[in-house]
Amino acid sequence: MNIDPVGLFIEDCKKHGLNVTYQRLAVFKVISKHKGHPSAEDIYREVLKEYPRISLATIYTTLETLSKYSIISKVTPLHDTARYDYDQEVHHHLICINCRKIIDIKYDEFDYLWLPDDLKQNFKVLNYKIQFEGICPQCQSKSNQQQET
Amino acid sequence: MNIDPVGLFIEDCKKHGLNVTYQRLAVFKVISKHKGHPSAEDIYREVLKEYPRISLATIYTTLETLSKYSIISKVTPLHDTARYDYDQEVHHHLICINCRKIIDIKYDEFDYLWLPDDLKQNFKVLNYKIQFEGICPQCQSKSNQQQET
DNA sequence: GTGGTTGCAAAAAGTTTGCAGGCTC
DNA sequence: GAGCCTGCAAACTTTTTGCAACCAC
Q1: Given the DSSP bridges, would you call strands A73-74 and B102-105 parallel, antiparallel or unpaired?
Q2: CA Rg value for chain A
Q3: Alpha carbon B98 to chain centroid, angstroms
Q4: Would the CB atoms of B84 and A67 count as touching at under 8 Å?
Q5: What is the C-alpha separation between A6 and A29, in angstroms, rounded?
Q6: Residue A29 and residue A9: Cα distance in Å, rounded?
Q7: Distance in angstroms (rounded) separating the CA atoms of residues B41 and B43
Q8: pTM score > 0.90 for this model?
Q9: Could you read off the pLDDT of A53-111 as tens digits, one per residue?
Q10: What chain B residue is nearest to A136 in terms of C-alpha separation?
Q11: Alpha-carbon distance B83 to B102, whole Å?
Q12: Which domains occur in chain B, in start order?
């Protein structure tokens, strides 16, 4: 019944026990209307137009909170520090969302992904990487231990 | 004939006209031996053991230089700022390595990737994202214009 | 009213830059 | 020896934090 993103947003907040503040609404509106993938700074500049007193720190806190409850998502789970790799063979990555470890995986099946023609025609694809997000074995056993305690 | 990474490294440097310095060798050795995907800081700490006078700035410069010539690779092309997204539908991304724009793509073909059993058994996969890296149409036409000039 | 949120300012974390001196080729 | 490269320190950018004031419920 409710296909209004703002309505959904309010429901989501209530579901998770989050207060619906003007700031959160404003941040959410900007993200949901934005065509691309805005950074905190982008969002800040946009929200400022409507709420000139909002603080950048609030933007960060809000984004972190909303990501935590999956109301929005962080496109770049590993943005905080650059990571480097020597292995020049084609391979893909498992990223543990808990400990942020990256594990290499190589399966031939992933090396010949079919690319749609209209994609290839517009965008010059040089390579692709598949990022699997999840929980690594170590973190799985840790969280089990905690539940048992 | 030469499967020694260090030998290959020296060749690569010469090929690109880069001086082979102790610092670059040390950085390279750490990366090529490292099991995971070290950050600049990780590499710095490791290199310090052997060259206590190296500077963190040198590590950064070296990593940037080596990435530029594809001697090593940066696992996280978008690490510099966090990017957020409202779209909660499953979708994948095109990343323009030139202007760093992110473009959403949705093709059903990518939504049912086959996952190997041993992968699923060890790592609890929650979702996956395919990142296509390449050049967006705008940047392609820009670089064509430049070549013509 | 109460507890969750915000604004502010300051600090932390990560990265880049300018310049003088040093090292590779 | 020439020019590239490094160390140092300082600056810059992005993000986080502590605390008092404030607002949603």
Answers
A1: unpaired
A2: 20
A3: 14
A4: yes
A5: 7
A6: 9
A7: 5
A8: no
A9: 999 999 999 999 999 998 999 988 787 889 999 887 888 989 887 777 888 888 888 88
A10: B123
A11: 9
A12: 5-136 (1.10.10.10)
Determine the Cα–Cα distance for residues B94 and B100; give it in Å rounded to an integer: 10
Look up residue A1 and give its two tokens.
């019944």
Of B102, B125, B134, the CB nearest to A124: B134
Q: What angle is formed at CA A93 by the lines to CA B15 and CA B123, rounded to 5 degrees? A: 155
Burial class (CB in 10 A: 0-12, 13-18, 19+), A144: exposed
- Contact (CB, 8 A) for A90 and A80: no
Q: B133 by DSSP, 3-state: which? A: strand
CA distance linking residue A99 with residue B123, whole number of Å? 13
CB atoms within 10 A of CB A103: 18
Question: Straight-line distance from CA A5 to C1' C22, in Å?
Answer: 61
Give the range among A34-43, A130-139, B13-22, B139-148 with minimum mean pLDDT.
B139-148
Residue A125 with chain B: CB contacts under 8 Å: 94, 132-134
